[in-house]
Amino acid sequence: MYRIALEQGFCSKSRKSLAPATIASMIAPLRSLYKWGSDPNVGIFAHNPTTSLQTPKVPVNSKNHYLTKREVIQLLNQLRKQGSRDYLIGITLVLLGLRVSELVSIEWRHFHTDPSETSIWLTVMEGKGGKQREVKVPQTLWYMLKQLPLDSRKLKKRQDPNQRLFPFTIRQVERIIQQAREQSHLEKKVTPHWLRHTNATLALLHGASL
Fold this sequence. Notes:
Elements: H1 2-8, H2 20-37, H3 69-82, H4 84-96, H5 100-103, E1 111-113, E2 120-124, E3 133-137, H6 139-145, H7 170-183, H8 192-205
Antiparallel strand pairs: 1-2, 2-3
């Protein structure tokens, strides 16, 4: 019954078939919800009806402005050589799929846990159109962010709620990524927005919601 209801939900009002990307984006949040709710420690759902759903194959459409996994590793390795903050800028852009304007606006108060206190979430304050959205933060990334170096010239104390994680301008972040691209000898003209496309491309191929 659950599966029938889910599959019937993937039809438009005109009864036309939805695009694979649309279906994948609808399945992803349902899959996350039921996976979380059916966890023995949560116990909201007795079963997870999404386990039998197949995510359709989705064609990639980022105008080729994305990096392969190998290229991402190559770029991140160079960013690590440039410094821990540069590395965290790069890996945050890739893992969270943020725009540069969103990245430089992050403050510690924008992070919060879910009701079960099992996951860390980021409220993105400058989404497209002035809207807010919630982005799940991987535990490994959260641990690294908490180790951000303290710049005593700019910051009063570590993790002040109103403190920005990356006190840079958009142009400064662009230069950091440009320097890493040049030093790592990538042929692609990588910009910070490419890292957002890279996140979207890899996530879409794995059925995540964009």
